[in-house]
Every structure is written in C-alpha cells, then in structure tokens.
C-alpha cells in the first residue's frame, strides 16, 4: 500500500489528537474538583471506534474507562493490550502562549495539554485501528484497547480500579504497550526509536518532624521541628546515590554506546549523553536512584516556632535497590522524624522478545535505516498496576521527533505540543505494528 493511501489515517491521527485536547480532562487529584472530561473523552473515542463496541467502567460519575476487545482469528493465542490514559495534569492558561485546551495547530505542531501525555497516542492508535478496518485486516490474536482515567494521580479511578475490580477485561492478556517510549533520538550515527523496557520503583515519602512549640526567641533549634526537618532535607538533597548497573541498565548503556559510537562512563553520563540533545536527561537518571524534596509546610507566624513541620520527597528507586534505598534513606532522615510511604514497584520486560522484534520491524518499515533502543523511565505509569496481573509491559508510543525538539520539557510543561509530522509517522508505525499481531 502506498503512503498516499495512508493519508486519511495520518490526517485522522492529527485531528483526533487535537479534538481530544479540546476536552478539558484535567485531573486535579481531588474528586470534588475533577470534572467529567475523562468520560467525555471516552464517549468521543467510542464514537470513533463504533465498529468495535466497547464497555465503559466508572468507579465514579465522570471518570469513565473504555475497554474495547477486537477479536482475533486465533482467540486461543495470548492477547495484546494497548492502553492510554485520557486525563491530563492542570494547566494555567495565564502562563501559556496558547489556550491549553484549544487544540490549536500552528508552527507545525498540535498545541495543548495532553499533546504528548498522552492524547497523541490515542489519536494515532484510533486512526491506525480505523485504517486497518478499512483494509479489512483482522488480527491473529485478540487486541484489547483500554482508554483509562486517573493515570496522572494514582489510578484508583482508572487502571488500578480495572485491575482490582474488573480483571476479567484483561482475560488472556500477556503483554501490553503504553507509555513511556517510542520517541525517536537522533545522533550523527543515525536515528533510534526508544522502547520502554523498565520503570524505576516509586517511593513518595512524607516526613513529619515534631518539636517544641513556642516563641521564636526562646525555643532552641535542637527542639525546633522546622530546623530538624530542613537539616534532614538538606542531607537528602545533597546525597549522591550510586550508579546501579543491573541487567536492564547494562543493556540500555550498551545500546547507547552503540548509538553514540563510543564507550560511556556510567559515573559521568550527563556529559557523555549530551549528543542526545534535550532527551539526554531522560536517559541519565535511569542508572541511579533519585530523591527530590518537593513540598514543605510549617508554621503560621514569623515569631512562632511551630510544633510540627511536614515535607514530601519524591524518590525513584533503581531496579533491585529497594532494600539499600530504605536503609540509606533512614540514615539521611535521622532521628526524631516519622516517615510515611506511598510506593509502587519497579517493573521490567525483556528486550530480546518477539513483541520487541515486531516493534523494530514496524519502525524499519516506516523509517528505513532507523533502529530501536531500550529505555528505562523514571516516571510511573499504569504498567505498575498491570504488573500485578503478571502482564509484561512495554513503552511504545512512536513519534519521529525533530532533532532539537524538547520532548521531556513538554511533559506536564507550559506550551505542551507535539509535531504534526510526528503524529503522522507514529500512526504509520502503529499500523505496521498492529498488522503483525
């Protein structure tokens, strides 16, 4: 089939992404202030996929999840899940140069909240499925499509809810693709598309220090909750976590060395990965645990020492380092501070798998000369929920990006946008990939 025959699919990928952006599906993290945007997205997707009746699941009104199962010719084969989330993080219009919910197309990009996280994937996926329908294609195995709510918070209204309350929708599913991965990286030696094979573990710590409450002129700092907490945060912020090279990290490092054509020093990756441009930071933090203080709350008056101070720390744990992390973190926190945890496990998948080979062939068919590159993300996705069902998860939302495009800066960033040509190419790659299933 000629590229020209695929133009309608490519046009749909762009249009669908823009139309989804125009639905404000902001997830505030507070059920009282999160509207019905996720359900409206589900309804729109349902209308586009009318040839494949789906099932809606709602833990709460306005928080719909849509699941579509496309029957395969050989239903006894393990099924494949392709998933994406419809919710987005908040956007302050006053700080954007465009309306974040207008889905504006200009300067070769689709602009708006969710453009790369991840209404682009939904637009490309739906367009690819519709194109395969027009071609009369029927997959060998069942393909399950899940468009879910609440990924940006904790998934308790989305994928976590489906896994816990409706696991039957994943019957027979052995593998899945979703975020983060698929974006291209360009260096002088060529272009490579990332395939997400691992996610670091997540550990969100709430630190609570207690001390003597009283007048600022009389309470010594050794009894001051703020002083105790700030000292702990300083130790955490300045700690250098060691580079961790397990099997997954070693495979990522080796692939980067082949792409860049030289040996890399794991202890000095920031400089070594500079040729990757804006995406370099997405790779360098994959090799070690990170701990970033994010919130601090204490006191009500300048002249009053509060009896309690609270802070949060966002920790991402290198695979296999959980026990070491807990021991070292406790030493950094020190005595007199209570710690509460919200955690999610690290997940990983093999790079030498048939499904990865399908991704590689799809990339090569659309972008001759390009290759694929294993990738570990520091972010947390719905793969953490799916892993509880034993599903092997990959990140593959393919986008052919311009070399200087600030892809990581678009995630949750101001003026989030995705190149139109990236959507057009990505829809073609997804079509090739799905044709092999």
Task: Please describe what this structure looks like.
Belongs to the peptidase M20A family. Keywords: Hydrolase, Metal-binding, Zinc. This is M20/M25/M40 family metallo-hydrolase. It comes from Leucobacter ruminantium. Its cofactor is Zn(2+). The longest helix is centred in the N-terminal third of the chain and has 16 residues, at 119-134. Helix 10 (354-366) crosses helix 13. The strands form five sheets. The chain has a six-stranded mixed β-sheet with strand order 1-2-6-3-7-18, covered by helices on one side. Strands 8, 9, 16 and 17 form a four-stranded mixed β-sheet that branches. It has a four-stranded antiparallel β-sheet with strand order 12-14-10-15, covered by helices on one side. The protein folds into two domains: 3-197 and 346-435, Aminopeptidase; 201-246 and 286-344, 2-Layer Sandwich (Alpha-Beta Plaits), CATH 3.30.70. A hairpin with a 2-residue loop joins strand 8 (184-187) and strand 9. The radius of gyration is 23 Å and the shape is globular. The chain is α+β, with helices and mostly antiparallel strands and 437 residues long. The model has no long low-confidence stretch (mean pLDDT 92). Helix content is 31%, strand content 24%.
């Amino acid at each position: 089939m000629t590229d020209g025959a695929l133009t309608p699919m490519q046009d749909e990928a762009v249009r669908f992404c823009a139309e989804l952006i125009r639905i404000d599906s902001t997830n505030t993290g507070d059920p009282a202030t999160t509207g019905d945007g996720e359900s409206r997205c589900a309804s729109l997707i349902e209308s586009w996929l009318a040839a494949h009746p789906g099932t809606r699941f709602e833990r709460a009104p306005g928080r719909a999840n849509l699941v579509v199962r496309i029957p395969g010719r050989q239903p006894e084969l393990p099924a494949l899940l392709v998933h994406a989330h419809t919710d987005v993080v908040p956007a302050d219009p006053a700080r954007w140069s465009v309306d974040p919910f207008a889905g504006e197309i200009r300067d070769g990009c689709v602009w708006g909240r969710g453009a790369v996280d991840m209404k682009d994937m939904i637009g490309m996926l739906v367009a690819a499925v519709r194109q395969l329908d027009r071609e009369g294609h029927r997959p060998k195995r069942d393909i399950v499509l899940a468009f879910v709510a609440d990924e940006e918070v904790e998934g308790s209204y989305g994928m976590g809810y489906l896994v816990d309350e409706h696991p039957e929708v994943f019957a027979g599913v052995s593998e899945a693709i979703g975020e983060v991965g698929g974006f291209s990286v360009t260096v002088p030696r060529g272009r490579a598309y990332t395939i997400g094979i691992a996610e670091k573990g997540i550990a969100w710590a709430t630190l609570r220090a207690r001390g003597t409450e009283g007048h600022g002129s009389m309470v010594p700092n050794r009894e001051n909750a703020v002083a105790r907490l700030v000292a702990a945060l300083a130790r955490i912020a300045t700690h250098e976590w060691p580079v961790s090279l397990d099997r997954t990290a070693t495979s990522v490092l080796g692939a980067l060395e082949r792409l860049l054509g030289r040996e890399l020093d794991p202890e000095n990756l920031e400089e070594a990965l500079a040729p990757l441009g804006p995406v370099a930071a997405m790779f360098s933090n994959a090799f070690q645990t990170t701990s970033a203080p994010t919130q601090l709350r204490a006191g009500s008056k300048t002249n009053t020492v509060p009896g309690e101070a609270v802070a949060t720390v966002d920790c991402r744990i290198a695979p296999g380092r959980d026990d070491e992390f807990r021991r070292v973190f406790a030493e950094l926190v020190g005595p007199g501070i209570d710690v509460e945890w919200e955690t999610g496990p690290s997940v990983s998948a093999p790079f030498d798998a048939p499904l990865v080979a399908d991704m590689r062939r799809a990339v090569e068919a659309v972008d001759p000369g390009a290759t694929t590159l294993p990738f570990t993300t520091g972010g947390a996705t719905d793969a953490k929920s799916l892993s509880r069902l034993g599903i092997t998860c990959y990140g593959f939302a393919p986008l052919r990006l311009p070399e200087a495009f600030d892809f990581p800066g678009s995630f949750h960033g101001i003026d989030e946008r995705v190149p139109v040509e990236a959507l057009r190419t990505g829809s073609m790659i997804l079509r090739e990939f799905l044709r092999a299933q």
